[in-house]
Structures are given as C-alpha cells and as structure tokens.
Amino acid sequence: MTFALNTASLNTLSLQDHALDGEAQRHAIECLLNCYLREYALPRNEANLHDQTHDLPMSLRQGNGRCISIALPSGRLVVRTERTSLLGRCHYNSAPYFKGNNQSWQPLQANELARLLCTPLSGAERVSEMLQQVANSLQITRTFLRHSRPANDEADSLLASEQHQLWGHALHPTPKSREGISHDDLLACSPEVGACFQLYWFKVDPTLLRHQGEDPRNTLSQLSGRDDAYPCHPWEVARVLADPLVKRAQQLGLIQYLGPLGQAMYPTSSVRTLYHPQMAYFLKFSMHVRLTNCVRKNAWYELDSAVALTRLLAPIMSELAIQQPGFLLMPEPSATSLDLSAFGTLEEAREVTECFGIVYRENLPLADREQYRPHVAMALFTWDQQDRSACRQHVQRYADNKGLSLEQATLNWLDAYAGQMLGGVLYCLFGQGVVLEPHLQNTVIGFAEDGLPCRVWIRDLEGTKLVPEIWPAARLSALDERTRSSVYYSAQKAWQRVGYCALVNNLGEAIFHLANGSDTLEQQLWARISDLLRAQSTRLGHPPELRELCAGGPFPSKENFMTRLLMRADREAGYTLLPSPLATPEEKKSA
C-alpha cells in the first residue's frame, strides 16, 4: 500500500520516517477495514469481495489480487487485496479509495477512513471519541516503529515474543491506543520498544498490607532490596500520590514515598503485566489507562477472584495433566494491596485498593523456558516489519528438521498446536464448565526439539469464567456476592467467548498466516480443524454447540469495532455470526 508524500514536510522528516509513517497508516487502515467488513458490511451484504466493475480508480485497474468494494450511505469504497481468507480477513496492497455521489475517486488515509465508516453508525460524541482513539493508536504505532529494536530470541524467547508485537490485535480498530500517556512515559514503559524500568515504591506500615493466597513478600523484597516497601506502576504513581487517603496516611507516617528503586522489570504484551526472568511471578499491576477497549485497573473483586479461581481450578489442572498432557493453565496464587479503610469511606478505600492492587502469576520455570522456547501466540501469527508472516520461519525450521515439504510441515504444525489448544479449552468448557479465554495474547506455545508445538499455556484468570449450571453458588460459598457474579457467564455467553477466542481470534489468524495466501492450503488447514473438532465432540459426548459447529454452523465473532464505537464494556460485547470455513461431512463426501 502506498501513500503520496507530503513534500512540504520533507525538510523535517527523513525518507525513512515517511516510510515508517506509511507502514503505520497501512496497518491502521487494515485494522479498520477488516473490522468493518467482518462486523458490519459482510453480514449486511454490503460488500463485494470480488468487484470486477470497470469504473475503478486507475491505480487499482492493474496489479495482483482482487478488488473489494463496500457500499456506504454516502458512496462507494474500493481497495485491492493481496489475499482474502475464508473468514473474510484481508491483507491489502493498495490504499482505499472513496467515491461520493457525483464525485471522483479519492484515496483515503486512516483518519479519513475512520470518519467515513463511523459517522453513519453513532452519535457525534461517540464518533469523536473513536476518531481520537484511532489517531492516538496511529501516532503511537509511528512512535514504536521509530524506536523498535531487533528481538533477541536466543537470549529469552518468551521475553522477545512479549516485547516485539508492533501491530497488536489485527481485528481491533485501535490496537495501540494508550490514553493520557506522554511520549517519554510511553517509551519508558512500553514493551514494543524493549522497555525495562524500575517500579515506584512506598515505605508502608505492615498493618496496611493485605495479601490473599501465597505470601509474595519475598518477591517484593527481592525487587526492592527492602522488607518494608510496596510498589506501583510508573503510570499509576501520580494517581496514587494525589489520592486523599494516601495523603492522610502519609501525614500519619504510615506511608512514605520512596520513588523509583530496585531491580528493573520488563513489560509484557499486555503492558501492565511485568516480567523478570529470575522472579517467581509475573506481576500484574493496576493502571488507570485505557488500552484498546478497557481501563486496565485491577478491580477489588478481581483481586479476590484471581486467587479464588486458582484454588478452585487446582483439581481441574491435575485432571488436565491426565486428559490433555501438554496443556496447562498459569496459576495466579496471590494478590496484594493496601487497606486504608480506616481513613475514609468504603468507596474511597476501594479506589486505593485498586490503585495498589497486584495479581501474582506464576512464572514459567527456567527449565521449561530453556527446553520449550515459549512464544506468545500473537507474536507468531502476525506480520514482521518486512511484511512476512512471523510463524513461517518456525514452520520452515520444522520442515527442514524433518525433511518435509513446506505444505506437509504446515499441516503437521497446525495439527500439533490446535490439537493441544482445542483439546484443553473444550474439555474445560464442556467437561468442567470453565470458560477460558484463549485469544492470541493469552496463549503461549512451547516447542519440541524438532520445532513442532508440544505445549500450550493459557494465562490471565481475569478472563476465566464459570458456567453457573455446573458451578452453583454452593460451590462458590467462599466468595462474596459481587466477586461470585463477576466470575459467572451464561452457557450462551460462555460458548460465544470460547468459540470466538479459540476459533476466530486464535486459529483464524493462525491459519491466515500459515496458509500464506494459498486458498488450497487454507482449505486443507480448516479441514484439519474440522477433524479435530469432530474428535473432540465425540470425546465430550457431542455437546449441542459442537454438534452444530461440526454440521456447518456459524462461528461467533466478537464485535471489537462496534464495542469500542458504542463505548460498551468488553463483557457486554456483541457477536457477529461468521459463515463456517469447515467442510461438513456431506461436503467431504462430494469432494
């Protein structure tokens, strides 16, 4: 995709900077178009994925790929695509062009495209906020591209995969938006630029400290070099220092601000969860910053639920080791915060609890990191900076090790990965009533010596929920009512979330990148998923959702674009039904 250079600005920006700006534009446009196509235009039959009309812009009449057109209330939008998947996921190789009534074709940049798509769908206030977030995401992407550094995969594969996800969520309209963060703070604390930073610490009277589950104070002492210190994230410290209860505790000598100190930690792909290779835990901090759709604070009841779910799911994790060896959950056995309820109202104290809230997630043992070379799935099923699918080099390495054709290696590679992931996720849902959230950022893949996937870890219990029919209130009697309600999903919502995360967000992107533009290979890969789903359905007693899916039923797809535009909470996101890419038994017989 190419964009015209603004020659007036060449005096202040290098040609390389313009090239990076073009890359940022291209990815922003791809996210917007793919979201709109999947959530709005295709379900309403307002898109033509193979436009062969003769009135196309001159620059689109030549070139590889095919043209897509979208009917809009104010005119027609066209763009050339290099590849289009069975789920309507596209990779574009031109700028989008728009032709209004009685007007000529005009190329669009990301902000113009966002305004064109959003304006007919919502009110001015919501559209204005969405446009600001699109602009914020675009500007931050430009910043990351200018300051990115090569990944050192050999030193620590997990850290490298956490810190080099430049593009983020491919089907989100604002994948890199971070509201209210200065340029310097952005560079200091963002994983995309390889950041490493100290925490901000407070000397705290021990009577104020509260912890649930395992006692993590040894880890805090290791990090700070003190036995009386408690941390917060650099992006949260200004809010903490301005809090009236914290000020009161400072005046009483119970809290003293120490500033940055101790060992530095690395931000992971979620930004607020931090990693140190020698620590027992990942630390998931609170940040009152909106990243993509949500303000990323640790709500007080989420501190409770993380530890409670770790305890409740312990028997299931033991069962998983038998039922699905190689599929593991990453426990969150501890949570901490400060209790300042003696100095204010319950609401004021909960604000402090959330600002200081930390969830502790077990780190992968060093032996596992060295043996399995783990990678976050989102870092594999994405584009590198040369516009190549990052997973292809892993498949090629496996093919070379085994002397296989690249096509056969790709099929084997997907079988190994999807078999582990689907086996564990579907067993948890239909066998145990546990709703995991295996989207790409929550999934970590480990590899055998020959390069074939052999381990899958699912992380982040914030997205883990329970189905009330299998987990009635009596089984959760240790939780208060608010915490208990936060971990429940209805059976319908449970399937929507699992089906979307596993099949669309995760495997949909995996197959898109593994197929590398080959329609034949893509169909073969989905056929393998079809076989895996049928086997899992038989194993689990043919639950209705899997029976319908295997018969050609649609895939549930979360509406990230409309959720953000309509300012809905992530929990209240709507779902679009996507036509199935799976071959039904009847279609297989006729093939």
TrEMBL record:
Superkingdom classification of source: Bacteria
Domain (Aerobactin siderophore biosynthesis IucA/IucC-like C-terminal): residue spans on this chain: 413-572
Residue ranges of every copy of the Aerobactin siderophore biosynthesis IucA/IucC N-terminal domain listed in the record: 158-381
Membership in a protein family: Belongs to the IucA/IucC family.
Family matches, as PANTHER family: L-2,3-DIAMINOPROPANOATE--CITRATE LIGASE
Protein name: Siderophore synthetase component
Native organism: Pseudomonas taetrolens
Organism lineage string: Bacteria, Pseudomonadati, Pseudomonadota, Gammaproteobacteria, Pseudomonadales
